[in-house]
Amino acid sequence: MDIIHLLPDSVANQIAAGEVVQRPASVVKELVENSIDAGAQHIQVVLKNVGKAVIQVIDDGKGMSPTDARMAFERHATSKISSARDLFSIHTLGFRGEALPSIASVAEVEIKTRQANEELGTCIFIAASEIKSQESVNTPQGTNIAVKNLFYNIPARRKFLKSDTTELRNITTEFLRVALTYPHVAFTLTNNGTTIYNLPASGLRQRIVNIFGKPINTKLININCETGLVNIRGFICSPDQARKTYGEQFFFVNNRFMKHQFFHKAVTEAYSGLINPDCIPSYFIYFTVDPSLIDVNIHPTKTEIKFQNESDFFQILMAGIKEALGKFNITPPLDFDTAGSPEFNPVQSEKDTAYVPRITYKTGYNPFNYTTGKITPEDSDFEKTTASPVHSKGKVPANWDILFDGLKEKEESVQTSIPGMSEPVNPVIPSTTCYFQLRGRYIVSPVQSGLMLIDQKRAHERILFEKYLEESDTHKMAGQKTLFPETLELSAPDFMLIGDLLPDLKHLGFELTASGKNSYAIQATPPDLSCNRAKEVLIELIEYYKNTEGNIKNKMQERIVSALAKAIAIDYNTSLTCEEMSEMTTRLFACKHHNFTADGKTIIHILKYEDVNSWFK
């Protein structure tokens, strides 16, 4: 008996929808791209319930005839290609003919469309791949398509949609990718009657400013590189615009957004030495290449694109970015090696008298007196001289410990300037008081089993995390009022995100009030946060938080506390006194979990004596 048969179109369309229509953002992307291909100059995206109820896209493009409007919902129906050869010279966005039938298989779709030379347009209603009606209507030129009740016939798919905030963030991401590609086209995006973006037709620089806010305008650096292989244009941002999370990184090729980790590496290498290794530069880079040199059909969403001779593009891109940075004097200064070079002292006048240093030493001291295997009582008097090393026990340290001594314990309490650590505490670590910094990153101290290394920034993060978490669990933190409130200007998505976080930020001591379009006035800050860092910390909070997947309401307080601790913690290369290192170590060991940060990174490592001894065998 035969067991192989053709799938019904409705089932085949739902299978295709599994790749093409993953969430409301996928629908927005496909419909807006169709409007672009139709030559629209004004595109409106209207959402209800972040697209779960309605996604409506209205354009003033060339529209469709009644026959074309019906054919557009057939599988693999397209006006873009007619032969396999056309796949290698694609200049349009939607060409596979799967988007509309896939959307119609998992939602209710109503489309109204009219061409310029027609008096009346056509209206088609489709549900679950079945055309329910088609009739003539009076409608403006262009296309008005409404997708309603997405996944209504696949409850399991609808159940796995993310929170409204996450879904809206995904929609704005897809919306902005198209808006940045076509700045000469006007776009609007609204949700439940609230305008999120209103972008008039403009140049590229103004489009970037309209999206990401006025502060970015002074950070943009023009890049323009023309070669026989590729033309690269657009903007990169100054190093101080770099963030620790992704968000303002955009590649486009032939007016199509793409993701490309290899080219991203070229950008980061061009910024080498200008930004911290854990930061990501912002860029808006546009490639124009011969379509035959790229393949845009290797992924259903068409965001991953294959280039021929990618290493050549890599070198051209990196060189172009370095040239742009160099023109704006942002390259790091040359640090010439002065080792072995002669030193020149200023000429002294005859009246100047050279200072002759004096040293006090013990004439009878013999460092090689090993007759008893120990330092003799006579030689031990050496530690009483002014040049001797000092130890808190009053004894000469032996063997390993002597390498790390030389820091005298102070009797009086020292007031530290490290946030959240101003109260003196009692030591809980071994009785040694010897601490020193290694390369401005690690606190080093001898312990009984070896040598202890503490990552100072991570240690401070853990201390602040537990401090803030305990305070937020027990009571609301009282913020310190600012005399002159600073204005925090944000992009529309970030403004919405802060709006969701306001109750929890207030619980931690922040007080923000809306002030103008997409901006907040900072009225109060947490007690350990200096007012001049409030804006910086809030931006870091957003960057740390906005790419969170899943329901952002889950463990909200803990995540915000973790982000706040990361933002306030001291930076690497911060010089610490012996007392500050001692206090930080003591506070760290008083934490419930002192070995790891809140996100699981190692804080302490012990270099054991046995490991050191093995080096010298």
Major sheet: size, sense and barrel closure?
8 strands, mixed
Rounded to an integer in angstroms, the radius of gyration calculated over CA atoms is 33 Å
Strand count: 22
- The helix content, as a percent range, equals 25-40%
Query: Would you identify the regions where 5 or more consecutive residues have pLDDT less than 50?
Result: 331-350, 370-416, 423-429, 549-554
Overall 3D form: elongated
Structural class: alpha+beta
Strand residues, percent: 15-25%
Mean pLDDT: 78
Distance between the termini: 77 Å
Q: In DSSP terms, counting alpha (H) and pi (I) runs of 4 or more, how many helices?
A: 16
Strand order of the largest sheet: 5-4-3-6-2-1-7-8
Description of the molecule:
By secondary structure, the chain is α+β, with helices and mostly antiparallel strands. Helices cover 29% and strands 20% of the residues. It has an eight-stranded mixed sheet. It has a five-stranded mixed sheet with strand order 9-10-13-11-12. Strand 1 and strand 2 form a beta hairpin. Residues 331-350, 370-416, 423-429 and 549-554 have low confidence and may be disordered.
